Amino acid sequence: MTEFRFRKSSYSEPNGECVEVARNVSSAVAVRDSKRPGGPIVTVAPAAWDAFRAVLVRAD
C-alpha cells in the first residue's frame, strides 16, 4: 500500500489547530491531527471528502 503524504489543510487555524490531509492515494482521502502525526487517521472515499469540502465552501 502507498504511504499517505500529508499536507496542512487550508482550513486549519493559524493558532496551531491543524488538520492534515493526504490525497495521494486514489481510493481514499486521509485526515489526521497535525499535533498527533502518529495518532489515528480517518479515511474516507474521495467523493465523500469532496462533498464535505463543498459544504464548507458554501458555509463561508
Which regions have little confidence, pLDDT < 50, spanning 5+ residues? none
- The helix content is 10-25%
Which descriptor suits the 3D outline? flat
Overall strand count: 4
The N- to C-terminal Cα distance equals: 36 Å
Q: Strand-and-helix sequence, N→C?
A: EEEEH
Q: Strand share of the residues?
A: 25-35%
Q: Give the number of helices.
A: 1
Whole-angstrom Rg: 12 Å
In the sheet with the most strands, the strands line up as 1-2-3-4
Largest sheet: 4 strands, antiparallel
Please state the average pLDDT score: 86
Structural class by SSE content = alpha+beta
Name the descriptors:
single chain; 1 helix; alpha+beta; about 25% helix; about 60 residues; flat; 4-stranded antiparallel sheet
How would you explain this protein's 3D organization?
This protein is an alpha+beta fold. The protein is built from one helix and four strands, in the order ββββα. The chain has a four-stranded antiparallel β-sheet. Strand 2 (19-25) and strand 3 (28-33) form a beta hairpin. It starts with 6 loop residues before the first strand and ends with a helix.
Which helices and strands, and how do they pair?
Layout (H helix, E strand, L loop, with lengths): L6 E2 L10 E7 L2 E6 L8 E3 L1 H14 L1
Antiparallel strand pairs: 1-2, 2-3, 3-4
